[in-house]
Write a structure and sequence with these properties.
Largest sheet: 5 strands, antiparallel
Helix content: under 10%
Order of helices and strands: EEEEEEEEEEEE
Mean pLDDT: 85
Number of domains: 1
Oligomer: single chain
Structural class: mainly beta
Shape: globular
Radius of gyration: 17 Å
Low-confidence stretches: none
């Protein structure tokens, strides 16, 4: 999957991006994934007179204040359904379960800071709008566009 843009903010002289980066490793014996990691980066592109400066940092918490979330959809990374939860926890009641290969576009409302490890994967819980209500989905199950549309 590589990189995707979670959210962006555009000011007069600066563009800020929150990037989600996926890393995988495969077993040479059975071609199964044996390594999976998600990293998040904050990237800033700043115009300084005649120069453009780009900075980036690895982040473990996300301040989404002022950011616009990018187009997102439920992404089936394995052959099991995705649970839409009432609260950001596996102990929460399940609102609905989306079947495998039933891709759904969703609207991201917020990100809950504090990563949680589920199935050996560390990611955030995302608050989403689904059926005109607010629910939660584990970040591993969400993918974003690789580009942004400025004029929507």
């Amino acid at each position: 999957m590589g990189n995707c843009i979670v959210a962006y903010k555009i000011d007069e002289y600066k563009i800020s991006l929150i990037i989600k980066h996926y890393s995988y490793g495969y077993s040479e014996i059975d071609d199964e994934i044996y390594y999976y990691e998600v990293k998040y980066f904050n990237i800033e592109i700043i115009e300084l007179g005649n120069e453009i400066k780009c900075t980036w940092e690895d982040i473990n918490s996300i301040n989404d204040n002022g950011f616009i979330f990018n187009g997102a959809y439920l992404a089936f990374m394995c052959d099991k359904p995705i649970d839409i939860m009432l609260e950001p926890s596996l102990d929460s009641e399940i609102y609905t379960r989306i079947g495998y290969n039933n891709y759904k576009k969703i609207k991201i409302l917020a990100i809950r800071n504090g990563r949680e490890i589920i199935d050996n994967r560390s990611d955030f819980w995302y608050k989403i709008e689904y059926d005109n209500k607010e629910f939660w989905v584990y970040g591993y199950n969400i993918s974003f566009s690789e580009s942004i549309k400025i004029n929507e």
